[in-house]
């Protein structure tokens, strides 16, 4: 899964055809490292999403919009000032580098024609969006890179833009046969690795594909290949590069079952065989959106929930330590009954003591066995009995207090684990808002100051429809779980929850029917397993019961319920239903 130079070449071919000659109508910066640019061309609107995220850099055309912050960041404001209505002259790629350059034309404050360059570098953690003058002087970038951060190149206003050459690689579009042969023969690496290590813009998966097309073993040492084999490999590379130069792309995703495993700008014949299938795309943008959109959303939401996750994890670790200490102290109180028996036996047989003994053996009438009682020789029999009774009473009080405390700590752990589970399934910022509200209510996050306006809650439970047409609702957090179970669900609706582990409440609406198909129960159970901490397991046991049998103890945290005489099923975690 590589955003390599060949994928970039496919994108440049597509963007050039769609955007060249178009005019920018809107520039937004929904994330600190992301731009969303709207371009009007040929009476159509195109949205170009550009992300310089270190974890998932992307660029593609999309039909989806994103909410922008109320105050635009400085970089966005600068772009709006200079190129807010600029015309796109061209979209190019230098060689087979992972770089896309947009040449733009606009009018300055005096009405004179000016040209600018917007350069997008898709280079993993070094990805960036750089805005330059026509002569290459950097005006600004979405990420500033100082000399302290990189010894190779500074990316700061006023610096000269250049492409860093940290590793000397040949351009596969122009490399001569003799040079290619020399590069391969001099490499001690496996052939597959030698290709992507010595040529620009070739990813490991495309190296594997080239070896497969040339019928060569990619794990074999490049230096051991014969001259005819390397000539054949070079001609295979030339045919591929000819397709790249001519824009003859056939983007496709390879699936293993339902899971996407690889994609490329050309069909990956090395994956042909049992267990793999292929989905072809007319547009590389559509492919990238399908492949990365959900992953990008998940990455973003995990970044935004990092602070909440840290708060919950810290609180959980503290509660776990507290619970372990309380459990250990509770175990120590198990010997309390021994001291009560000592005291009672001393009151019964104490008259036999002469005084000064360190221990006393007598018959334990509870077990009919002989028992030895430790004594303080300086105390009388009655005083020794009272001493043992005092120990018993102290341990008894400790046991009663700790029994309640351990239950409270266990409930707090369950509550925090349920919040952690909610963070795992959060998909949008509005989902995080409700979770943060709950953390505020229970004192884990500082409450907002008096007069501060509470954020608007727009998050709603998941809503699915079963194969038989029954509505199924899934809570995203404890507040939603509470609302689903005690407000949305009626008495005969069915309630589902993963057994013994944190997870969402799932409600199967029966629409007043007495008979519900087994398939609806199986699908609701699969959702309950999927939206729980057990979603990575092969099988999860799920409890289900009619809502009228669910009770909520007074004073408990939201989403906490009790029930008896429930049914159980074993489900494979799955979310195969379409959300309504």
TrEMBL record:
Pfam families noted in UniProt: NFACT-R_1, NFACT_N
Origin organism is Candidatus Enterocloster excrementipullorum
| GO BP term, pick one | rescue of stalled ribosome
What keywords are assigned to this protein?
Answer: Protein biosynthesis, RNA-binding, rRNA-binding, tRNA-binding
Any one GO molecular function term: tRNA binding
As recorded in UniProt, coiled-coil segments are: none
Say which domain of life the source belongs to: Bacteria
One GO cellular component this record assigns the protein to is:
RQC complex
The subunit field of the Swiss-Prot or TrEMBL record says: Associates with stalled 50S ribosomal subunits. Binds to RqcP.
Q: Please give the SUPFAM superfamilies that the UniProt record associates with this protein.
A: S13-like H2TH domain
- What is the protein named? Rqc2 homolog RqcH
Q: State what this protein does.
A: Key component of the ribosome quality control system (RQC), a ribosome-associated complex that mediates the extraction of incompletely synthesized nascent chains from stalled ribosomes and their subsequent degradation. RqcH recruits Ala-charged tRNA, and with RqcP directs the elongation of stalled nascent chains on 50S ribosomal subunits, leading to non-templated C-terminal alanine extensions (Ala tail). The Ala tail promotes nascent chain degradation. May add between 1 and at least 8 Ala residues. Binds to stalled 50S ribosomal subunits.
Q: Which PANTHER family match?
A: NUCLEAR EXPORT MEDIATOR FACTOR NEMF (PTHR15239), RIBOSOME QUALITY CONTROL COMPLEX SUBUNIT NEMF (PTHR15239:SF6)
The NFACT RNA-binding domain extends over 462-555
Specify whether Methyltransferase is a keyword of the entry.
no
């Amino acid at each position: 899964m590589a955003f390599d130079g060949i994928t970039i070449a496919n994108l440049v071919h597509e963007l050039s055809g769609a955007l060249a000659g178009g005019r920018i109508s809107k520039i937004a910066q929904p994330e600190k490292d992301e731009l969303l640019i709207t371009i009007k061309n040929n009476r159509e609107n195109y949205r170009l999403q550009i992300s310089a995220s270190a974890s998932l850099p992307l660029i593609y055309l999309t039909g989806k919009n994103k909410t922008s912050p109320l105050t635009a960041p400085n970089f966005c404001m600068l772009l709006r000032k200079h190129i807010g209505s600029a015309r796109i002259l061209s979209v190019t790629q230098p060689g087979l580098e992972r770089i896309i350059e947009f040449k733009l034309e606009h009018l300055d404050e005096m009405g004179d024609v000016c040209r600018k360059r917007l350069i997008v570098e898709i280079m993993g953690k070094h990805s960036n969006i750089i805005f330059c003058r026509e002569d290459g002087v950097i005006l600004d970038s979405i990420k500033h890179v100082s000399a302290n951060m990189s010894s190779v190149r500074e990316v700061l206003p006023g610096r000269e833009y250049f492409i860093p050459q940290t590793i000397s690689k040949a351009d596969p579009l122009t490399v001569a046969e003799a040079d290619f042969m020399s590069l391969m023969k001099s490499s001690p690496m496996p052939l597959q690795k030698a290709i992507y290590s010595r040529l620009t813009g070739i990813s490991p998966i495309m190296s594997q594909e080239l070896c497969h097309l040339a019928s060569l073993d990619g794990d074999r040492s490049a230096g051991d290949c014969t001259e005819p084999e390397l000539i054949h490999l070079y001609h295979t590379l030339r045919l591929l590069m000819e397709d790249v130069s001519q824009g003859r792309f056939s983007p496709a995703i390879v699936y293993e079952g339902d899971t996407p495993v690889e994609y490329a700008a050309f069909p990956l014949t090395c994956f042909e065989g049992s267990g793999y299938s292929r989905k072809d795309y007319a547009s590389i943008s559509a492919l990238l959106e399908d492949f990365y959109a959900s992953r990008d959303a998940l990455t973003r939401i995990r970044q935004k929930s990092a602070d909440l996750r840290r708060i919950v994890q810290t609180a959980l670790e503290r509660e776990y330590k507290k619970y372990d200490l309380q459990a250990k102290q509770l175990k120590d109180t198990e010997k309390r009954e021994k001291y009560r028996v000592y005291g009672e036996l001393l009151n019964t047989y104490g008259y036999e003591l002469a005084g000064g003994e360190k221990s006393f053996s007598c018959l334990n009438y509870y077990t009919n066995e002989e028992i030895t009682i430790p004594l303080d020789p300086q105390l009388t029999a009655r005083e020794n009995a009272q001493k043992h009774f005092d120990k018993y009473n102290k341990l008894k009080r400790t046991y009663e207090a700790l029994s309640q405390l351990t239950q409270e700590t266990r409930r707090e752990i369950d509550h925090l684990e349920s919040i952690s589970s909610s963070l795992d399934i959060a998909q949008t910022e509005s989902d995080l808002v409700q979770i943060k509200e709950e953390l505020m209510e229970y004192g884990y996050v500082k409450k907002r100051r008096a007069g501060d306006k509470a954020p608007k809650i727009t998050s709603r439970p998941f809503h699915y429809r079963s194969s038989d047409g029954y509505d199924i609702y899934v809570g995203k957090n404890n507040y939603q779980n509470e609302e689903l179970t005690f407000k949305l669900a009626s008495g005969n609706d069915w309630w589902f929850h993963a057994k013994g582990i944190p997870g969402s409440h799932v409600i199967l609406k029966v629409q007043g029917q007495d008979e519900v198909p087994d398939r609806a129960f199986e699908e609701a159970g699969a959702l309950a397993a999927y939206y729980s901490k057990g979603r990575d397991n092969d099988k999860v046991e799920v409890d289900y019961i009619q809502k009228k049998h669910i009770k909520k103890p007074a004073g408990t945290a939201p989403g906490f319920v009790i029930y008896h005489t429930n049914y159980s099923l074993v489900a494979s975690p799955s979310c195969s239903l379409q959300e309504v």
